[in-house]
């Protein structure tokens, strides 16, 4: 019987309706009992142990949680066939992206899942998602993944796109790693398990700011942010990553202060192509790092991780390094066929 370690983080999957009408967390043991009783038959096919991380709404998730999750995976890496992390949906894509950097050379599946509807409700999606996550944790696939609804998504390409749909997550600028129908259908892009040693690189410097550029934001606001103690800045530009001329002064000041400025697009799909328009070209020449086709979740967590482990002079190189499939600098978007 294969062994799967469940890393319990709380989330909607184990919430209940409180007296005030809002969803809130159950007590620790009640929540764990609810999760492990979602499908009793699982216990006849899989040995599942539980490691308690926290019991929180994922809006309260922080880099300290990311470090603890990654460290527990590494500690138990040789003892389990795979890992399932039950997690609230709000920040799941951030945590999945963050672990993609700290769990280097991952040769087993680390699978995130959760629910849009609490597990105690008859209409809940909790049972289906949890069962499928355990199935994937035993499959011949490696990497940090999200299993939600019928989709298998690379963690570093994931984003939550709906607050209420049961297929709440999408893969951004890439195709699915697989689909779950009556069987599991992995795509040719999925990576098989391997036995090379895992390398743990925990630690994130969360002193970054992420700013969405909208018309009229005063230059002095960005200048004040630079002086607030941040070590990195992400600017969400227009279209292909365009940044208004008025902010070139801020970009040059950041370079003088050795604060890397990463530019991404406000568009959900597509990439930064900052050479296309003059406003983008000038920002590039002023020293920004374009994020190409990475998600905002990948950009922000990767920058935090890079700032913790590498000097300023290497940040651009690290941001443009393709560690797990999160970035495609060439801008070619593959069409992946799902195998039957």
From TrEMBL:
* Residue ranges of domain Asparaginase/glutaminase C-terminal in the record: 207-318
- Supply the alphabetized keyword list: Hydrolase
**Alphabetical list of CDD domains matching this protein:** L-asparaginase_I (cd08963)
GO annotation terms (biological process): amino acid metabolic process
Q: Does the keyword Hydrolase apply?
A: yes
**From which domain of life does this come?**
Bacteria
Active site, renumbered? 12
A GO MF term: asparaginase activity
Domain (L-asparaginase N-terminal): residue spans on this chain: 3-187
InterPro entries noted in UniProt:
AsnA_fam (IPR006033), Asp/glu_Ase-like_sf (IPR036152), Asparaginase/glutaminase-like (IPR006034), Asparaginase_C (IPR040919), L-asparaginase_C (IPR027473), L-asparaginase_I (IPR041725), L-asparaginase_N (IPR027474), L-asparaginase_N_sf (IPR037152)
Member of which family?
Answer: Belongs to the asparaginase 1 family.
Instruction: Indicate what this protein is called per its UniProt record.
Output: Asparaginase
């Amino acid at each position: 019987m294969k062994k799967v370690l469940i890393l319990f983080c709380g989330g909607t999957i184990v919430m209940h309706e409180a007296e005030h009408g809002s969803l809130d967390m159950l007590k620790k043991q009640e929540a764990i009992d609810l999760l492990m009783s979602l499908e009793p038959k699982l216990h006849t096919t899989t040995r599942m142990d539980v490691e308690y991380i926290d019991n929180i709404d994922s809006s309260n998730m922080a880099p300290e949680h990311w470090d603890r999750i990654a460290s527990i995976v590494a500690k138990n890496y040789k003892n389990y066939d795979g890992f399932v992390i039950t997690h609230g949906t709000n920040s799941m894509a951030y945590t999945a992206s963050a672990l993609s950097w700290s769990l280097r050379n991952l040769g087993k599946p680390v699978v995130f899942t959760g629910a849009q509807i609490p597990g105690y409700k008859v209409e809940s999606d909790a049972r289906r998602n949890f069962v499928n996550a355990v199935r994937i944790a035993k499959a011949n696939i490696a990497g940090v993944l999200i299993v939600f609804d019928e989709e298998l998504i690379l963690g570093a390409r994931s984003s939550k796109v709906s607050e209420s749909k049961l297929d709440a997550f999408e893969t951004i600028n890439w195709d699915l790693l697989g689909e779950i129908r009556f069987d599991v259908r992995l795509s040719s892009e999925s990576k098989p398990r391997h036995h090379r040693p895992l390398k743990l690189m925990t630690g994130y410097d969360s002193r970054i700011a992420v700013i969405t550029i909208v018309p009229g934001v005063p230059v002095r606001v960005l200048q004040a942010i630079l002086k607030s103690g941040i070590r990195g800045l992400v600017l969400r530009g227009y279209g292909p990553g365009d940044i208004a001329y008025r902010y070139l002064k801020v970009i040059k000041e950041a370079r003088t202060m050795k604060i890397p400025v990463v530019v991404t697009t406000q568009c959900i799909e597509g990439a930064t192509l900052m050479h296309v328009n003059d406003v983008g070209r000038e920002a590039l020449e002023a020293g920004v790092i374009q994020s190409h086709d990475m998600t905002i979740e990948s950009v922000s967590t990767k920058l935090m991780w890079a700032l913790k482990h590498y000097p300023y002079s290497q940040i651009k190189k690290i941001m443009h390094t393709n560690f797990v499939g999160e970035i495609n600098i060439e801008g070619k978007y593959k069409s992946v066929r799902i195998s039957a």
